[in-house]
């Protein structure tokens, strides 16, 4: 393939993600944000871009939706609304907050976690699984699986079939890495991995780069929507 063909192929791939967000759904996504705002840490525009991206992928794919790092479940609840009752969902969280950040997670992560008076500290993101269960109680129980505990204990036992959307929101290096190591291979062709913390925390971007490099992957980090949601589209390998 010539460099020209390669460029065309690359631009086609980029266009796919740029063009397919349906503006008609924006109001519905904003409404979901308002409904779940107190249960999510994600700002409205990013929240809506996540939902637009998921809606676009889930139109074509009937695989499972997975979120690692739910906190109070605001994004998870909205994902259930967008993905509908016909598919399976797996949600993972310690509900005991974040593990200790390490130097690999970066100076910002360590100082954020040390500053317990920080307005966004939120008790180190400790929450409880029962209120999450209550939030999503109206969804068919047999399709929704909540895995409480550390990712290293729960994620390796994933048995939910091909994944259409894998949303990684665990902030730190080890948390991101364990999910990539055990779930990446379950993401179906044309499925996506959303990297919530790719821009926010050094540990997340390091884990993504280390994982792709270690596995010899040719995957690129793609961007979606006005807020530039970072993702991997599983056609790149
Ligand atoms: C930023 S919050 C998730 C935000 C959420 N998706 C939302 O809608 O706002 C990160 C979550 O990841 C969880 N988490 C991070 N590392 C973890 C690990 N190794 N095992 C289990 N849970 C983890 C934390 O408990 C926390 O609730």
Regarding CATH, which class? Alpha Beta
Identify the strand order in the major beta sheet: 3-2-1-4-5-7-6
Number of strand elements: 7
Report the major sheet.
7 strands, mixed
What Rg is obtained from the alpha carbons, in whole angstroms? 17 Å
Per the CATH scheme, the topology name is Rossmann fold
Number of helices: 10
Low-confidence region ranges: none
Distance between the termini: 17 Å
Q: Percentage of helical residues?
A: 40-55%
Mean residue pLDDT: 92
Tags for this model:
10 helices; globular; seven-stranded mixed β-sheet; 237 residues; binds S-adenosylmethionine; 16% strand; alpha/beta; Rossmann fold; single chain
Describe this structure as you would to a colleague.
It is a single chain. This protein is an alpha/beta fold and 237 residues long. The chain has a single domain (3-233), classed as Vaccinia Virus protein VP39 (Rossmann fold, 3-Layer(aba) Sandwich), CATH 3.40.50.150. It has ten helices and seven strands. It has helices at residues 3-19, 26-36, 44-58, 74-83, 107-114, 122-125, 129-135, 151-154, 173-183, 202-214; strands spanning 64-68, 89-93, 144-148, 163-168, 187-195, 222-224, 229-233. A seven-stranded mixed beta sheet has the order 3-2-1-4-5-7-6, sandwiched between helices. It is globular, with a radius of gyration of 17 Å. InterPro entries: SAM-dependent_MTases_sf (IPR029063), TylF_MeTrfase (IPR008884). It comes from Streptomyces jumonjinensis.
């Amino acid at each position: 393939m010539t460099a020209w063909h390669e460029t065309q192929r690359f631009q086609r791939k980029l266009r796919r993600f740029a063009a397919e967000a349906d503006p008609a759904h924006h109001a519905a996504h904003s409404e979901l944000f308002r409904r779940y705002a107190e249960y999510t840490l994600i700002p409205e525009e990013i929240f809506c871009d996540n939902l637009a991206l998921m809606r676009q992928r889930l139109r074509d794919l009937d695989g499972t939706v997975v979120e690692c790092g739910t906190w109070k479940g605001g994004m998870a609840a909205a994902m259930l609304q967008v993905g509908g009752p016909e598919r399976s969902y797996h949600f993972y969280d310690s509900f005991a907050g974040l593990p200790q950040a390490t130097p690999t997670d970066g100076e910002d992560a360590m100082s954020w976690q040390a500053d317990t008076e920080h307005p966004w500290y939120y008790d180190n993101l400790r929450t409880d699984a029962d209120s999450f269960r209550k939030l999503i109680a109206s969804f068919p129980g047999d399709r929704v699986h909540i895995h409480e505990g550390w990712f290293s204990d729960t994620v390796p036992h994933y048995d939910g079939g091909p994944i259409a959307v894998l949303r990684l929101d665990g902030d730190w290096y080890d948390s991101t890495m364990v999910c990539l190591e055990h779930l990446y291979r379950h993401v179906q062709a044309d499925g996506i991995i959303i990297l919530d913390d790719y821009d926010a925390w050094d540990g997340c971007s390091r884990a993504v780069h280390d994982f792709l490099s270690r596995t010899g992957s040719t995957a690129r980090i793609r961007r979606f929507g006005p807020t530039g949601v970072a993702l991997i589209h599983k056609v790149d390998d």
